[in-house]
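=== Structure Prediction Worksheet ===
Name of assembly: unnamed complex
Input type: mixed (protein and possibly other molecules)
Chain count: two
Listed entries:
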Amino acid sequence: MGKRVLLIEDEPNIIEAIGFILSRDGWTVHTHQDGQTAMAKVLALPPDMIILDVMLPGRSGFEILRELRSTDVTKDIPVMMLTARGQDKDRALALRLGANHFMTKPFSNSDVRDYVRAMMDP
Amino acid sequence: MTIERMTGTRIRENRMDIGLRQASLASAVGISPSYLNLIEHNRRRIGGKLLSDLARALGVDPSNLAGGADRDLLDQLHSAATLAGDMAEIGRAEELAARFPGWAALIALQARRLAVLDERIGALTDRMAHDPFLATALHDVISAVTAIRSTAAILVSQEQIDADWQRRFHENIHTDSLRLGKSSEALVAYLDAPADAAPSPDTPMGQVDAFLAQNGYHLPMIEAETATSDDVVALSGLTGVAAALLAGICRQYTADARALPMAAFAQAAQACHYDPAQLARQCDVDFATVLRRLPCLPPGAGHPPMGLAVCDAAGALLYLKPVPGFAMPATGGACPLWPLFAALSRPSQPLRAEAVLPGPAAPRLLCYAIAVPLAVHHFDLPPVLRSTMLVMPDMAQGSAAPVPVGIACRICPRADCPSRREPAIIGTATAL
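=== Predicted Assembly ===
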């Protein structure tokens, strides 16, 4: 059983594609589509790494990140943010709130795979 | 080199233009060639009859030789030169203005035009950044593109993919491409639709905003008491109504800076995690002063971003410091749900609420507001109220349901909002 990656993303086809490439790379991929209940999912697992979309229904990825970093169990879990907006202010906010990495959509599969490998096998 | 002394340069150029030797011109006006040489190199002042004689001998009007460049023009050239870093020969601006007044005026005109266009671009960029229709439409397009790119990359990879997955990925690409087509059409229709004109940067309030934004809403000269409000207004270069507005803002800033000197205040703010209620108690000042003071913390010093809005009893904005994630239309028509306006109905009652703008990734904004009557003593008139709202995008806790605010009804997608005062102007993007 590979280490667990939790992908919090609301686009089903993006979930399917990322899920496929990461599973094929040996990781166990869990997915979640709703921002409002994402924290409960994280606490129930908890995963070894989180890929977190910024724009989620119910609650933004930034707010989830803030809560992840202020919760003891989750504060050290590596988080890679995905966003459709590449503005500096979003990147700055993500890093200020404690994201480990920030990737702008559309991204390349190999970048996602390489980053997850780097995070999980430091 | 003073402006007046450039007359010599003009005499020399005019003389050379017509191929006249220095000795000949000197003789024609009855002076020695060496004296003319000094004049031409701007080492002797010249005027009166000698200037008229030289002009006549050169066949030009004396006004073409006399006088220097206009001080305004020189200021504008200096300001234009700053756009180019150290590329322009700033020390030779006077020479340029004196020798090529037409070109100098053109440079100044273009620099002014650039400044106006920059402000317009800024206003349009703000509008684009805060337009929820556009944000939703673009998000949809980028999501579809991301899914297609990622799925297609899997299909074209060299690795073996079983037939079920292949079929599934082909279907996904098909549905995403249909979605992308629809989103793109809607986006094009939206961008083709007539939009409101960009707010004019030439309004007095716009000019004051631009000056304050340039300074990061922090005025170190007032903090250090090395400048008065009038000094700051003079430095800003603003005149008329804009100068009067800025003077009022600076006077308030001065009073607030005296009540809460920056060094101690910044330390206290950091220590209590920027909680304005605690700061007001600790520093023994009123709540509104703390709300106004927090957004004046120096930029780039590690403090969280904070926005501020101040309005009068009619809800007209008197001051606005936007921060990423928070904006209000400066020219009226703001969403009435902001705590800034709620405070008006409960004077002297401090409010704390979280607000959220429309859009799937809009962050919560922690808002503090209070409306206080100004000390104006009239018996049969309503009190003069000032409502002040502090907005902290990074500090929301997410504990209670946020107030669903908007930028303005015209661009707000909250169709069933009971506070809506007019329909949204564009409906295209709602279909996305």
